[in-house]
Amino acid sequence: xxxxxxxxxxxxxxxxxxxxxxxxxxxRQVRMEELVTxxxxxxxDRLLSPDSTFFGDLFPHVVQWRGELYLExxxxxxxxxxxxxxxxxxxxxxxxDALR
Length: 100
Prior knowledge:
Helices cover 23% and strands 29% of the residues. The protein is an alpha/beta fold. The protein has one domain (5-10, 31-99). The longest helix is centred in the last third of the chain and has 9 residues, at 75-83.
């Protein structure tokens, strides 16, 4: 299994972070098997696109909430990494546990 769990929706409160706010969080390594996805939908054209990060952050966004790591943005990048046999992903982690 690639991810810890696959869910639909975000169980944590809205954090209201902008793209600029996310860019201030330094990336760190996380094992993909620790991540819980927040969407069940995968768009194959985005997965296979060579410029899928052109308009977004290079690093996926993860929210830590109640001890779980939720992959909020970057599912396609995570799956692309898994297809290359990588088990670790560089992500930006917002620790909501520490803020609440």
